[in-house]
Amino acid sequence: MLKLESVKKVYCKQQHEVVALDSTSIEIARGEFAAIIGPSGSGKTTLLSMLGAMSAPSEGRILLDDVSIYDLPIEQRAEVRQNKIGFVFQTFNLVPYLTAIENVQVPMMLSQKFKTEQQERAEELLGTVGLQDRLHHKPSELSIGQQQRVALARMLANDPLIILADEPTGNL
Q: Is 53 exposed, middle or buried (0-12, 13-18, 19+ CB in 10 A)?
């Protein structure tokens, strides 16, 4: 389902080339769970960004269901991110002026779901992560752990095929 073929990622930092990943190959089957571990600065976040169709590799290919995602036009790549990939970042990227339920609804706003369906799904997901009593709280009114759970609920909103989580238990 998800495959990296000889993926390399190089950054230029202060006129120096930094190799974040070098000839990395991975194959993750549908339904399989994989953990990427390593010290800070070892390329874990870079790898997740590439798997999440957000940062193209310098070399190699990343395939999702045998389709090279970085060979897709940018609009189709955005659809892949929207419909197939759920991502929880180290920083939760919650919209500060939206409530928890509204933050969870954000990814569904681009889908074909009716507003009532979006609300019901968001309530269900927030209940799943134990925040049914915090639906109308803004991020500033939530603890860091609660904010992370809102981000988890938001990530699940469109039933992604793939879940990518960067430091998923860091604040729980």
A: buried
Sign of CA dihedral 123, 124, 125, 131: positive
- Residues 6 or more apart whose CB falls under 8 angstroms from that of 166 comprise 44, 45, 48, 87, 88, 89, 90
Q: What is the pLDDT of residue 57?
A: 96
User: Is 46 within 8 Å of 20 (Cβ atoms)?
Assistant: yes
Reported for 35-38, long-range contacts at CB under 8 A and 24+ positions apart, including other chains, are none
Segment 32-60, tens digit of pLDDT: 999 998 888 888 899 999 999 999 999 99
Question: The pTM is what?
Answer: 0.83
As given in the structure block, the two tokens for residue 8 are 């390399």
Domain ranges within the chain, ordered by starting residue:
2-71, 100-165
Is it true that domain 2-71 has CATH number 3.40.50.300?
yes
* Distance separating the N- and C-terminal Cα atoms of the chain: 29
Mean pLDDT of the region 65-87: 93
Give which of 162, 167, 157 is closest to 51, Cα–Cα. 162
